[in-house]
């Protein structure tokens, strides 16, 4: 089945980015969230990014109008009844994702693939709450979605070859490079990245250095585009903690224990850039 209309669930930083690249690739995108305000704010943000692309001569005003017209707001998951493909990018909480997948399984047409942008949660477990586990897959975009080329495509134990092939093709249509990964905690990306971020947080916690110094070492010493603490703020400290918990519980190995400082900051509501405060301040940005 040719994919023409998709649903993206969650209009946060990831869902918004996925919706944008899909609309730019010519797909109609039903953008779903629990509150219309979140969707409107995200559409305004996408509009600003497209204005920048117009100013740089990459797209025309008409292109912007066409892209924006392909983004259709939705606050009702039942709208999945009319789409050919779904990618879920709601918050990194298993109980929320399971609820969404149960509903999607009821409302989406038979044969429709249900993908998740989860950073670390088991695809096999999500698939098991549906009656179509062969059609459930991980489609893990990287942040910021319009810029980063990679999509990790995660195969659950029951994911079919046909489902993988469709997602690979869709990823390429969106201008991305898919990499096939089997379903283990943190996949590849976050199994490697997140312990480094967690260790950087331990460096503050143990008084090795301040945040600025730690980031400077990794930027100037290892040529990382962002230091690990700036990156943690950018990803969202709630998401970082959720991923560390998945690694810690998934491998039952103390080497993945989340730093107590990370837990404390999340409890305080210091979630990084999106809340205005994390390892650095973003009140005026
Ligand atoms: C947690 C997970 O599960 C998986 C993950 O995603 S882990 C995170 C993976 N991502 C990374 O590691 C990002 C590392 N950081 C970077 O690559 C760069 O710092 C960056 C691309 C984010 C910004 O680059 P920069 O050169 O410092 O800044 P800047 O010049 O402002 O931006 C470069 C481009 O990115 C775009 N950009 C930056 N932030 C953006 C955003 N939030 N949304 C969309 N576009 C964005 C800018 O518009 C700019 O585009 P143009 O060149 O086309 O104008
Ligand atoms: N932040 C990052 O760098 C990356 C995050 N991810 C994953 O993407 C997902 C989303 O992360 P972000 O966009 O960063 O989070 P975010 O906090 O920016 O956005 C999450 C959005 O989901 C919405 N939401 C919550 N419950 C919902 C529901 N039941 N139905 C519909 N929408 C709902 C929220 O209102 C919010 O707008 C998570 O699974 C995360 O692990 C994947 C790659 C990178």
Automatic annotation (TrEMBL):
Residues 6-183 form the 3-hydroxyacyl-CoA dehydrogenase NAD binding domain. Transmembrane segments: none annotated. NAD(+) binds at residues 10-15, 33, 92, 97, 119, 143, 274. The record marks 140 as: Important for catalytic activity. The keyword NAD applies. The keyword Oxidoreductase applies. InterPro entries: 3-OHacyl-CoA_DH, 3-OHacyl-CoA_DH_CS, 3-OHacyl-CoA_DH_NAD-bd, 3HC_DH_C, 6-PGluconate_DH-like_C_sf, 6PGD_dom2, NAD(P)-bd_dom_sf. Residues 186-282 form the 3-hydroxyacyl-CoA dehydrogenase C-terminal domain. GO terms for molecular function: NAD+ binding; oxidoreductase activity, acting on the CH-OH group of donors, NAD or NADP as acceptor. It holds the Pfam family 3HCDH. GO terms for biological process: fatty acid metabolic process. Keywords: NAD, Oxidoreductase. Belongs to the 3-hydroxyacyl-CoA dehydrogenase family. PANTHER family: 3-HYDROXYACYL-COA DEHYDROGENASE FAMILY PROTEIN, 3-HYDROXYBUTYRYL-COA DEHYDROGENASE. This is 3-hydroxybutyryl-CoA dehydrogenase.
